[in-house]
Every structure is written in C-alpha cells, then in structure tokens.
Amino acid sequence: MSHTHAHESEMNKNAVVKGQVLIVATSCGAFPNTDVPTGLWLSELAEPYWVLKDAGYDITLASPNGGAVPVDPVSLAGDAKTADAERMLNDDEAKLALEHTVKLSDVSDPTFYDAIFVPGGHGPMCDLAESDLLGNILTKAAAAGKIVAAVCHGPAGLVKAKGPDGQPLVNGRKVTGFSNSEEEAVGKTKMVKFLLEDKLKELGSQYVCEADWQSCVVTDGNLITGQNPASARELGETLLQQLKEKRSATGGGVTFSAAEAGLVGDKKGAAQDMSPAGAGKLTDAGKCC
Fold it and tell me: By C-alpha distance, which of 241, 213, 206, 242 is closest to 227?
C-alpha cells in the first residue's frame, strides 16, 4: 500500500495502536427526490474522531458507496463548524480518510473492530437506515460484545441491526437520537422518510431525550447513543472510556491497522472538495436517493 492512501498507523509500523474503531458515514448527499443537499454533519464525525485519534486508536472510515463522503454544507458554516470540524478540514490525513472511505461491502470482519460508530447528518436517514449490510455488520459486532455507538441521525443506522434474540438491537434498551421537536425546529419533518424518535420507539426502544440542542448521551450496555450535534464530543468521550475499560480488562493493544490485517479494501475513491467553497458539490457517491 502506498503512503498516499495509508493511515498514520500504517505509515509508522512501530506505533502501538490501542484499538480499532470503524466509523460508518453516509453516502447520501441529497434529500430523497430533491436536489436539496444533505449528507454527513461534519462535527458529529470530527469530535469523536479526534477524541479517539488523539488517544491512540486506529480509525477506519467506511460508507455504503466508498470514496468521498458528502458533507452537509450547513455543517460547514457558522457555529456548526466546530474547532474539531475545522481541524478535520485542515488535516491532510483526516481529509484523505473522508475522501477515500472504504466501501462498506469490503469490511470483511466486523468483529475485528473494538467499536463501530455511526455519525449523523440527515444522510443516514436515506441510506444507512435501509442498509441490510450495515444491519448485518452491527448485528455481528454487537453479538461479539463490541461497542456500537451512534449520534444524532446516526441511530437511523441501527434500524436493521438485531439483538441475539432476533429482535431489533434497540428493543427494550435505552437510546436517544434526534428528537421530533428538533426535527420540527430545523424544518425537515416533511423531507425525511420517517421521524427518528418515532422509529426508535416503534422498534421497541426506551427512547429518552433532553431539551432541544442540549447534550444527551445514553449508555445501555455496549450501546451508546447521542441525541444531537451538541452530544458528539460527550459521546466520543463516553466511547473512549468504554474502550479503555475493555482494553484494561483484556490487557492488550495491537500494532497493525485494519488495512494491514487485510480486513478492508482499497480506500481509493472519488475526491470531494469539502471546503466551504466546494460545499454542496455532490459526487456520484452522494447520489444514492
């Protein structure tokens, strides 16, 4: 593998990686049957990403189509573009990871990862919610005792996941996610296929939330969910703490990445300009709906 498409841990083979995290982002760059752009809400990926990366965890980014992740242009403007989002836009390695995500079908062994995290943006409501492949990946990971985490609209990616009893993974468990009230506040109730709060309740979860835009992170065993963008950093810190506890219990670290282990495919894909000037320019990877 050339250094052009390598993770930091792949470039420094002597570095000890504390663990492996798979982040699954959307490939959907527009609301269904419209040209209205959506995609990943960048801070919801960036904040947990840097919490984990700075703590020594190797991160693999994947998406249904592979290649560039469409980023919601609204998440690149004003207060929505947090310091961690800005850092991601200015970090060569992080930008490369976002532009060359692994195709989800190339993730051969979900149980290799210590955790799987699904960030939000409205994109996951379009593609990840309907992905049997992601559902199978999360089902296998959860059955193996791995941590499953999602924030804001990311819990839409849990819709197809099952627990060991064959029931929805969220059934009977405390979870949170973007609330009906928040969806109403952003004016998107008529643009999404379903309301996430309603869907999580329909699947049998014990849905909880705080007031609009307040941080809310809920842990139920190896399942961690966050309500909204304001919850992303707290979710990352909660995830890191669980990873540390599991690592302490097993007493291990690894010295290879997922790509080196042959568990993901090539990261090459269509590039996307994620700068504010390039926001909203959809690649083929963003036209899934």
Answer: 213
Say if strands 102-103 and 174-175 run parallel, antiparallel, or are unpaired: unpaired
Spatial contact of 193 and 125, defined as CB atoms under 8 Å apart: yes
- 69-111 pLDDT, tens digit each: 999 999 999 999 999 999 999 999 999 999 999 999 999 999 9
What is the pTM assigned to this prediction? 0.86
Cα–Cα distances (Å) from 188 to 20, 159, 191, 218, 245, in that order, read 35, 20, 5, 24, 39
> What is the spatial distance between Cα 124 and Cα 109, in angstroms, rounded to a whole number?
22
- Copy the structure tokens of residue 149: 């985490």
Residues 30-45 have pLDDT tens digits of 999 999 999 999 999 9
Cβ count near 98 (within 10 Å): 28
Please, what is the Cα angle at 151 between 50 and 75, to 5 degrees? 70
What is the spatial distance between Cα 121 and Cα 70, in angstroms, rounded to a whole number? 10
* 282's tokens: 């959809």
- Strand, helix or coil at 8? helix
Cβ proximity of 167 and 127 under 8 Å: no
| Start-end of H helices in 6-131 | 8-11, 42-54, 83-90, 92-99, 123-126
**24-60 exposure pattern, b = at least 16 Cβ within 10 A, e = fewer:** bbbbbbbbeeeeebbbbbbbbbbbbbbbbbeeebbbb
Rounded Cα distance, 272 and 174, in Å: 37
Beta strand 223-226 pairing with 217-220: antiparallel
